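pasting for the record
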Amino acid sequence: DLEQLEDRWPEIRAGNPDFLKVYLESSEHHALRRNDPAYYGKRGLDPVLVASIVAHAHDAGFRVAAHVTTRHDFRVAVEASVDEIAHLPLEQLDETDVQLAAMSGTVLVTTALSHRPSDAVEDLDVLHRDNLILLRDAGISIVLGTDSQATVIDELRKIASLDVFDRSELLRMLVHDTPRWIFPGRNIGTLAAGAEASFVVLSADPLEDLSALTQITAGFKAGHRLELQARPADGKRGIGQHLAHAVMSKGVDAAIGEYHRLRAEEPNSWDFSEGQLNALGYAMMQHGKLVEATAIFQLNCEQFPESANAWESLGESYAKRGETESAIEKYERAVELQPGLESAIAKLAELRGTP
């Protein structure tokens, strides 16, 4: 509450942060959810606090970014004069709120590639496209960022696929607007006289083909040439990261369908190793999506039936769902494949209630 904010502010101020981030999560329902244990850690800040936090931060010279999910979150953040909206909302924006954001100089970070649950949205691409058009037409500064392990180049490709910006606009976002927003004290993102000589040299023109952005032949930082790290020999992209966005936006069945499609049509373009699905399954568990995690682990077992690790992970998902018999069955399979697998043996003992 406001009293706690005043008490804690000296501690926050003493940390001398580069910026503060506030979390708004369906703030229109905050009053109903604040004392509901089901929303512990999921309800975000009381929207009443945001304006005071921003005022304190601006007095101290800090910028404020706001995590938002709904149009109401967006409105609260803009009315409080936050500097940055950290995500495209998962609802259609109101034009009045967007105009206010434009007048306030608010910057929006795209994060179209996100782990945020969005399966309730009928068509996420259409929603993002409509909101980006509204934001663009209002003159809001849009910069690139991800809410996952995807790279900013992956994010650029995603935004490009929405067909809102031309390549010159996208390139300006990438090499000028985004870095200058992250590092406001540096004269970067330009080849003007007196600017910091930090740049890359590409083997092809990204205005012709955006894939040229990954074809870096030389890099310089403050005038010094960098030794470029060699890219992986196979150059494959991780299928797990790609499917994470699909699970969150379209559901696990659609994600599994995408997995099978890519495995059949683009087998040499993606990393289909066991660890990819295993990591994705655990990411779903961390988001509380246990049914989805089980489906992903089941897919991994189908693809790698001789992997004790895959079966153990599947057993863990069933155990977390409280389905003890199924969990025991999967752990038994893991031990059958790897008799000395201590973690699975210990879990079996726990599930059976034996020492």
